[in-house]
Specification:
Blueprint: E1 8-11, H1 15-26, E2 31-35, E3 48-49, H2 55-60, H3 65-71, H4 74-89, E4 100-104, H5 107-122, E5 127-131, H6 132-138, E6 148-152, E7 156-157, H7 160-174, E8 177-180, E9 184-190, E10 193-198, E11 203-206, E12 208-211, H8 217-223, E13 231-242, E14 250-253, E15 259-262, E16 267-271, E17 277-279, E18 284-286, H9 289-302, E19 311-321, E20 327-330, E21 337-341, H10 346-361
Parallel strand pairs: 1-2, 1-12, 2-8, 4-14, 12-21
Antiparallel strand pairs: 3-7, 4-6, 5-6, 9-10, 10-11, 13-16, 13-19, 14-15, 15-16, 17-18, 20-21
Helix pairs in contact: 1-7, 1-10, 4-10
The structure holds flavin-adenine dinucleotide (FAD).
C-alpha cells in the first residue's frame, strides 16, 4: 500500500483504535494506524468484563449516574461482542462469563445494592441479590465480613494480553499500515483532507481521520478546534503468584475500591481503581506503595485465602476519564473527523465502541442511538 492508498488514518493503537482499524480494513478501506507506543489502558487493564454499574464511578461522579444508566444496555452487548470477536479471530481470549459479585459488608451497603439492582433490572440486566447462605454455596472464598452481594450474570473476565496480541496479528493479516512508536504532533484540516505530522517529521494525508487517542485526545482535538475534556487517570494494579482455582467470579465491592479475579494461569489479579502517579519527563505511570498495601490488604480481607500468596508484580496504567459515556462519532464542524473514546470500563466496551465508530466512518448504521455519545456535547 502506498501513501496514496490510505483512506483513513487512525491515531491511537489501544483496543479501540486497533479494532476501528481492523473493521475499516475488513470493509476494504486503506488504513494507517499511528501509535505513540507509550501504551494506555489497553496494555495495563485488569481484564474485567464489567456489566453492572460500578459503585466506584457512582461515588466518584454522582453527576454521571443518569448517563451511566442510559449507557448500561451497551455492556451486556459489549461482552457478547468480545465473544463474537474471539470466535471470528479464531483466538483464545480466555473469556469466562461466570458472573460478577458486588459484595456488601453492612446492611447499608446491602440496601444500596438492592436499590441499584432494582434500577438495573428495569434497564434489562440480569441481576439478583444473594445472602450469606447463597454465597457460602456459590463463593465460599469470600471472607466472614461479607454479608451479601449483588450478582450480575453477564459479567466475567478475559486475558487482555491474549486479546491484544490476537488483535495485533489480525491487523497485520488485513494489511493495516502500522506506524508504531510514533507520536502524532500536528493535525490540520486542508481542502482535500487531513495532514498528519508525527514527532519524527513524517507527514501523511488522508480523507478521513479517527482519533482513538484516549487520554491523549485533548491536545490533538484542540488543534482542530474541538474541545474534548479527556483526562488521564493513573491507576494501580497487582497480580499474585499462581494458585489452585478458587475465585470463579469477578468480585467488586459496594463501597470500597476492589476488583478481584483469577486468570486461567491461576494468578489473582487485584485492582479496583487505587491511584498511581504520573512522573518524569515522559509522563510515565508509576506505582504507589500506599496503593499497593491498601489494595492487597483489602483483597485479603474480602478473600482471606489470598493472604499467603506472594504478589509477584505491580504496575500502573493510564485510564481515561471523560464524563462516563463514550465519545463516539463525527463532529459537524470538521468533515471527515471521528472520535473513538469508550465510556467507563473501556476495555469491556472497546471492540463494540470501535464497531459503532467504524460503521459511522463507512456511512453505515451504527446500530445504536448515538445521541448520548456525540463529541458535540462538549461544544
Ligand atoms: C490499571 C487499569 C485497569 C483497568 N481495568 C479495566 C478492566 O478490568 N475492565 C475494563 O473494561 N476496563 C479497564 N480499564 C480501562 C480500559 O483499559 C481503557 O478504558 C481502555 O483500554 C481504553 O482503550 P483505548 O483504546 O480507548 O485507549 P488506550 O488503550 O489508552 O490507548 C490509547 C492509545 O493512544 C495512543 N496515543 C495517545 N496520544 C497519541 C498521539 N498524540 N500520537 C499517537 N498515539 C497516541 C497511546 O499511545 C495509546 O496507545 C482499566 C484501565 C487501567 C489503567
Amino acid at each position: 500500500m502506498t501513501r496514496n492508498d490510505i483512506d483513513v488514518i487512525v491515531v491511537g493503537g489501544g483496543v479501540v483504535g486497533n479494532c476501528v482499524a481492523g473493521f475499516l480494513a475488513e470493509a476494504g478501506k486503506g488504513v494507517m494506524l499511528i501509535d505513540e507506543g507509550k501504551g494506555g489502558g489497553s496494555t495495563a487493564n485488569a481484564g474485567s468484563l464489567h456489566v453492572q454499574m460500578q459503585s466506584r464511578f457512582m461515588q466518584l461522579y454522582p453527576q454521571n449516574v443518569p448517563g451511566m444508566q442510559r449507557q448500561l444496555p451497551l455492556y451486556p452487548k459489549a461482552v457478547r461482542f468480545w465473544q463474537a470477536l474471539e470466535k471470528k479471530l479464531g483466538a483464545d481470549f480466555e473469556i469466562k462469563k461466570n458472573g460478577g459479585l458486588m459484595v456488601a459488608e453492612t446492611e447499608e451497603q446491602l440496601a444500596f445494592l438492592h436499590t441499584k439492582a432494582a434500577q438495573e433490572r428495569l434497564l434489562g440486566l440480569e441481576v439478583d441479590i444473594l445472602d450469606r447462605a447463597d454465597l457460602d454455596r456459590m463463593a465460599p472464598y469470600l471472607g466472614p465480613a461479607v454479608i451479601g452481594a449483588e450478582i450480575c450474570f453477564d459479567e466475567g473476565k478475559l486475558n487482555p494480553l491474549q486479546c491484544n496480541a490476537a488483535i495485533h496479528r489480525w491487523l497485520i493479516s488485513l494489511g493495516v499500515v502500522l506506524r508504531e512508536g510514533e507520536a502524532v504532533k500536528t493535525l490540520k484540516r486542508e481542502a482535500s483532507g487531513f495532514r498528519v505530522e508525527t514527532a519524527r517529521g513524517a507527514v501523511f494525508r488522508s480523507g478521513m481521520l479517527v482519533l482513538a487517542t484516549a487520554a491523549g485526545t485533548a491536545p490533538l482535538a484542540g488543534q482542530l478546534g474541538i474541545h474534548i475534556p479527556a483526562r488521564a487517570e493513573p491507576l494501580h494494579m497487582n497480580i499474585t503468584e499462581a494458585t489452585a482455582p478458587m475465585i470463579g467470579h469477578l468480585v467488586q465491592h459496594a463501597d470500597r475500591m476492589i476488583t478481584l479475579k483469577q486468570f486461567a494461569t491461576g494468578q489473582i489479579v487485584i485492582g479496583g481503581g487505587w491511584p498511581a502517579d504520573i512522573v518524569g519527563d515522559r509522563n510515565h505511570p508509576t506505582v504507589r506503595l500506599d496503593s499497593l498495601i491498601a489494595n492487597a490488604t483489602l483483597a485479603r480481607h474480602i478473600a482471606p485465602q489470598i493472604a499467603p500468596l506472594r504478589i509477584i508484580r505491580t504496575w500502573a496504567g493510564v485510564n481515561t476519564s471523560v464524563d462516563g459515556k463514550g465519545v463516539l462519532g463525527p463532529v459537524s464542524s470538521v468533515e471527515g473527523l471521528h472520535f473513538a473514546i469508550p465510556g467507563d470500563a473501556g476495555y469491556t466496551l472497546g471492540p463494540l465502541s470501535a464497531d459503532m465508530v467504524a460503521n459511522m466512518v463507512l456511512g453505515r448504521d451504527p446500530g445504536e442511538d448515538m445521541t448520548d455519545y456525540t463529541p458535540m456535547r462538549f461544544a
